[in-house]
Amino acid sequence: MAILPTLRGPSDLRGLTDDQLNSLAAEMRECIISTVAKTGGHLGSSLGVVELTLALHRVLESPRDRIVWDTGHQAYAHKLLTGRFDRFGTLRQLGGIGGFPRRAESEHDVFDGGHAGTGLSIAQGLATARDMRHSMERIAVVVGDAALISGLSLEALNDIGHRQTQLLIVLNDNAMSISPTVGAFSQYFSTLKLSSAWKQSKTAYDRIVESLPVVGRPALSLSRRIRRMVVNFAQPGQLFEDLGITYLGVIPGHNRRGLEHIFRAALDVPGPVLVHVRTRKGAGYRPAERDQIGFHGAALPPMPGLPEPRVTPDGHVAAHAPLSGPALARKESAMPQPGGSDEAPVEPSGNGTGNGSVSGNGNASAGTADMGTPSEAARASAATRPPNYTYHFARELIDLARVDRRIVAVTAGMPTGTGLHLFEAEFPDRFIDVGIAEQHAVALSAGMALAGERPVVALYSTFLQRAFDQEVHDVCQNDLPVVIAVDRAGLVGEDGTSHQGIFTIPSQRQLPGMVIASPKDEQELRSLVRTAFAQDHPFALHYPRDPGFGVPVVEPKILPVGVGEMLREGRQVLIVGFGPIVERGRQAADILEKEGWSVGLLNARFAKPLDRQLILDQARGKTLVVTLEESVVTGGFGSGVLEVLEEARVADPAYRNVAVRIVGIPAETFVEHGSVDQLRRLLRLDAPGIADQIRETLVRLRATPAGGEPVAVPAAARPRSRTA
What we know:
Layout: H1 18-39, H2 43-47, H3 50-59, E1 66-69, H4 76-81, H5 119-133, E2 139-144, H6 151-163, E3 167-173, H7 184-190, H8 196-210, H9 216-234, H10 238-242, E4 246-252, H11 256-267, E5 272-278, H12 286-290, H13 331-334, H14 376-384, H15 389-401, E6 407-411, H16 420-426, E7 431-433, H17 438-450, E8 454-460, H18 461-464, H19 468-476, E9 483-487, H20 504-509, E10 515-517, H21 522-533, E11 539-542, E12 565-568, E13 573-577, H22 581-594, E14 599-603, E15 606-608, H23 612-619, E16 624-632, H24 637-651, E17 659-665, H25 676-682, H26 687-700
Parallel strand pairs: 1-2, 2-3, 3-5, 4-5, 6-7, 6-8, 8-9, 9-11, 10-11, 13-14, 13-16, 16-17
Antiparallel strand pairs: 10-15, 12-14
Helix pairs in contact: 3-11, 5-6, 15-16, 15-21, 17-19, 22-26, 23-24
């Protein structure tokens, strides 16, 4: 009988036997795999923490005790154990449960996560508040090895050690972030060794020495100095000890009983304790273990060989769809049990035992099988989609770098997601991955620009938010030619509120010297890449995660900065679009022209500087100017167009009767998760929705189509709530 559907909450775990818990772990893996095969999501990281999650929830009493999941993409197992099994099939779907912890979903979710490196600061705040009010709840935070090297995490560790906050820090070390973790800290974690005897004997030894008559205190002081020298030599974990944090590790991460034992002991130690746990990303599913990069995130490789998940009447995948097959690593072969070889420390890759191996035992995944090759249907589906904007950006950058040796590519732990792994393959000496440290990535690029290089730093829009100060102080104040490639600009989709790339344009518009550009299609993107390197100021190039439109290939050219283009003329309405939303503006114009309206379309290309003269020339005498952007409207592209027209309105009566409608994303609420197409329909940023908004405005203005009668607004097109 399945155990997972019977759980009402984590408290039910404490009544289960070891055999039942082992079966439950297998059920959780099957549920995660079968659901993510349908919905997409962060597969590898969540599979790697099943035993860790079970251990934490058996030792702690959530929600009284608080478990913080740094980043949160490793929290699928946590969601299954905290009352969301029945809805797990709605993962990352519109109206369903989120892909990251969400307080609105469950009292067991401590904060709305999504960005790496925030967990330690959140946990420190919770623990500090606990201590101030003298309450007794225990605080634990699970942080990945990559997130631990971010600047914010290191600042938090410093404060935690200084304040001696009672806190359990679980370092989930799988030697991966999204792409392999890089830098000196990564090498440091990979060399840590278990020193349990030293840790367990330390307190008892101190008590014995201190109790000695006459010489107790001096002997203890001398002993501690000697021990410190020995530990500094033999125990790399002394870094944390020097910060004032007790270090325990390395602990095998798939031995649930061992984890429970060490967590209970760590919670009894005064002050902060860091338990270093070594896990396997994708554990239990051989394809994810072998392709840890591909199976990390939302855009998963094809997963053939899995049975078709059962779909509920509301269109969601059933979370408990049965799963079997050679790709699934069964617990008896792939998940060593207490007393087995997994109790040995896990060694880093490159030591002769193989990646993800267990020391002295060969490959830890022995007994699992390959998932096979992608199906013909999967290949055909992938082949019919045009390459996305990220690919076109990377290829054009490579072409430029072949002739300009000053070009250096920088990213923050995202070489694959930003397409820069292609650049690295051709120019390994001109590629820099700083790990999850966006602030450092931008500041480093500024330094290279000062030295005469032409750096491009590629970051997701949502992660660029972290480096705002570096954009202001380091890049723009120094007017440096740093190209900021803003990937995933606009709606991202299923990753939800923390990942939508909708706030960057307003933040950048206020920065002196910053050029902000976005293409209407993938071929114009290629030209804008060349334009960015042909000028000498900070240049932010925004583009979405969408596939291109498949437009014919053209020779890229350097475009004049701040110059837009007219795509069609119109007498009554002028649509001014920024970015790929221009195409939806064209479709909306087609809809309106069939109703008799005369609609012009302008591709702005640049949000800063705007093509003021072209906009003013085309707006003169129009009934309505409509701006389009896939960004928050407050202070965004549309606000810039409005500022231009308002300035002209004061001096020229020809503009005083021109109305302006700013179409974009309302700033009153965050955008939830759902597919990009669903979100665009919901926000009325698809072509029919844009046409509806324009039509509504024209009716309010009592305008009539060219040579026609006033148009009534269809009921379906009337204003809808923005808070949906």
